[in-house]
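Notes for week 9. Today we move from apo structures to complexes. The key idea is that a small molecule is not decoration. When we ask for a structure prediction with molybdenum atom present, the ligand SMILES becomes part of the input, just like the chain. The input block below holds both the sequence and the ligand string. Read it once before you look at the output, and try to guess where the molecule might sit.
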Amino acid sequence: MLHGLVRTPLVFTVEELRRFPSVSKIYFLECSGNPVYRKPYGKTASDLVGLVSCVEWTGVPLKTLLDEVGLEAGAKWVIAEGADAAAMTRSIPIEKCLEDALVVYSQNGERLRPEQGYPVRLLLPGFEGNMSVKWLRRLRVADAPVHSREETSKYTDPMPDGKARQFTFYMEAKSIITRPSGGQKIASPGFVEITGIAWSGHGRIRRVEVSVDGGQTWRDAALQDPVLSRALTRFRFPWSWQGQAAVIQSRATDETGYVQPTFPELLAVRGENAFYHNNSVQPWRVAANGEVTNANN
Ligand SMILES: Nc1nc2c(c(=O)[nH]1)N[C@H]1C(S)=C(S)[C@@H](COP(=O)(O)O)O[C@H]1N2
Ligand SMILES: [Mo]
């Protein structure tokens, strides 16, 4: 159902939704609690940033549906409601709804799986995963946000001054080395290809740098084409490892010029009480015997 500040409210079935012109787009989807902010951190790349995915989504631009019903004056937010027992609800600014929000029914060419929101979910490219409401049953156009549980008690960011940031939608630029990474072991000294993924909710990844000396010096990694907006980007970096103990890490820069921060840099701004939106650089410790562990632990 699409109703609220619209000229012609619309109740439609999934089959009717699928009669609209469709688009297929590749986007990442990441939980903003990926990883949680506080130590102790996990052991592996999957423990640390496993709550991210990147697939081809198929559905209808939300703009097409909003054009169909006609927005009335004062339409500033769209309130999306899920059909789960919690009726999970989020408020989405109208600008995002008209820019690139999708109402999707397929993922990688197959219908959404039950756990991904079958039959229909919202997909907000680059915004925190929580806002991509699954099992979507209602979109209400409104002049103000609803201040639901997920945008007050959850998914807000407590700051050192005791106030909290609300509506921190964007997932900022981030990267992680996935090989070699925590839990893995380099078999013997010699050539090692360092590789990983980078992404940004603000658009394309422009650059990924890798350091193999604990952050003293950085060099550019190669980005694998195509580098898509708001999608995971693979990077690769050749390393000649002589069997010494080392700390390796990657840092991403996106098309806005924003550079991924270190954890101490994040801590200096956000303080100790933050929880979501930890996009800090992930250092891995390589021991002389080739074992790789989380250098933050
Ligand atoms: N209706 C509904 N939608 C939801 C959720 C939920 O609990 N209920 N979880 C959200 C959260 S917190 C995230 S991170 C993403 C995860 O999407 P995925 O399971 O497809 O990775 O879905 C979001 N959409
Ligand atoms: Mo999440």
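Residues 211 and 225 are 22 Å apart (CA to CA).
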